[in-house]
Prior knowledge:
Shape: globular
Bound molecules: zinc ion
Order of helices and strands: HHHHEEEHHHHHHHH
Number of domains: 1
Amino acid sequence: MYRFIVFILSLMLFAGCDQTPTGRDQLALMPDTMMADFGRQTFLQMQQQTPVSDDEAANQEVQCVATQILAHLANRFPGNALPQRWEIVVFADPSPNAFALPGGKIGVNEGLLAVAASDDQLAAVIGHEVGHVLARHSNERLTQQLGIRTVLFLVGMFSEGDADSERIIQALGMGAQLGIALPFSRAHEEEADLMGLELMASAGFDPRESVQLWKNMAATGSGQLPEFLSTHPNPGSRIGALEEKMQVALPLYQKATPAECEPQ
Ligand SMILES: [Zn+2]
């Protein structure tokens, strides 16, 4: 028990120092290995529920844009722990949506490609989703949802080897979704937007196209709520924030080699 308490105290000390890549203070206490397990299980479930796209052009475009963005991650946001492996999957789903799960799992629906009219616009979406992963938003949200006491109890079980993530999920009786596929808060959306903007620009995608993407999204007016619009009642504020950040993003873009993802 004593060991457990010391462990908790040291954890809380460390937690106080946690910052996201944009410098925002963050309380995200779940072990990242456990979060990656949750992400992997949820992603598998999603692939059982929704077929993966066999549209070759769509797959090629998404993989190409994602590869270029991921290649610039370590340079743009150095010193951040990166997932061991990224996995980006296109789903045969007509709703214009995309999502990110901890552990580097990203889903893009076919329907999104009808709204993201160019590689630059698609890069804005993928950059945004990568931003959620890198800033550990799922971890932060789950820490808030469960409360610090529950989280620390789980962390203790996990680190002492008493339970693996699957048993913890069962014990919580929450199913593998565990709320990690829920919409993010507005603060998380804005942070992901700004990280995505810098990422796309460093990878050679025109950051100004992000503004056009959100305009396209707002114009679809489909009753569906995409992950990245769900907590933004006002697309204008999102566009305003992006335009403000453009003076940082544009020079990055001008220095970068223009990205190429032409269909073959
Ligand atoms: Zn988002």
